[in-house]
Amino acid sequence: YGGNLHAQQKSDSAFIFEPTQNPLFTHKYTADPAALVEGDMLWLFSGHDYEGGQQGYKMKDWLVFSTKDMKTWEEHPVPLKITDFEWATSGDAYAGHVAKRYGKYYWYISTNWNGIGVAVADKPEGPYKDALGEPLLTNEDCFASTHSWTCIDPAIFIDEDDQPWIFWGNGVCYYARLKDNMIEIEGDIKKIDFDGFEFTEAPWVHKANGKYYLTYATGFPEKIAYAMAEDIEGPYEYKGILNEIAGNSNTNHQSIVAFNNDWYFIYHNGGIQTDGSSYSRSVCIEKMEYNDDGTIKPIVMTTK
Ligand code: FUB
């Protein structure tokens, strides 16, 4: 363990880190962050690009980290692998998102070709088990869109009225209600009308000061853009680019949460990638601030 980390082994498979700069972790490549705040803890779930010539975005497992103060982090044992989903025959561990409901933790994961699945656990650090034995959503649910990675990048938002929603997609941003049990879709699958601006992937919905914010990756190489709405189903008004192209990474993928009285923008870049492949990504964190009118101040990537 090197780079900016001072690591100490807690048990056979758990490590404590004190990162002092971005990227957050330098002992592993991490991508597609999704944060969950629970009480005094921030849980960070991520994808895992692996060392040694990963071909494309073909990852094998996901990772979980936790912190109480954004300074000292614990890495927990590997909580979920693509092989935990028997139906995911393409074997690609794409982006995911963990949500809590009635004391259980639901990890929505995406694959290339095989769609979106959901695993469930009693604790945020897992272990997680496939909840359905089949995908929750497939390319057929995306109006038979043709490319294999249409049905990816799930993002969950539980509204103040307790209604859970799922957003996802590549090229088109789809959304639907989830049933109370979190493992079934309720009602119709719909599309967000982007009205002239380009959605690539990586939707994330959050709410602040009564407004809905839909952030997402746009273009390729990707920047993170955002739009705002009064209603979760829109119409969404485009508000501009929030984060520029992430260094040596063609993709960017953001997670936005409030924690200990601050807002955080968590994303990935190619900050410690050395082979020029764009498949060795690293999670970074910046503080995020709003303007008085509710718009968000542009996020400047730092190495701090
Ligand atoms: O990591 C694989 C894919 O790359 C994700 O699903 C996308 O959001 C992009 O980051």
Structure explained in plain terms:
The chain is an all-beta fold and 304 residues long. It has no helices and 22 strands. Strands 1, 2, 3, 4, 5, 6 and 7 form a 7-stranded antiparallel beta sheet that branches. A 4-stranded antiparallel beta sheet has the order 8-9-10-11, with no helix packed on it. A 4-stranded antiparallel beta sheet has the order 12-13-14-15, with no helix packed on it. A hairpin with a 4-residue loop joins strand 17 (211-218) and strand 18 (223-229). The two termini are 19 Å apart. Bound molecules: beta-L-arabinofuranose. The site of beta-L-arabinofuranose (FUB) has 13 residues, from strand 3 and strand 16. The site of beta-L-arabinofuranose has 13 residues, from strand 3 and strand 16. The record marks 153 as: Important for catalytic activity, responsible for pKa modulation of the active site Glu and correct orientation of both the proton donor and substrate. Belongs to the glycosyl hydrolase 43 family. This is Endo-1,4-beta-xylanase D.
